[in-house]
Amino acid sequence: KNENDVASKSSFLSSLGTAYNNIGYVYDYKGDLSKALLYYKKALGIYEEQNNQSGLSMLLSNMGYTYDKLG
Question: What are the angstrom distances between the C-alpha of 44 and each of 1, 3, 29, 63?
Answer without folding.
Answer: 26, 25, 19, 10
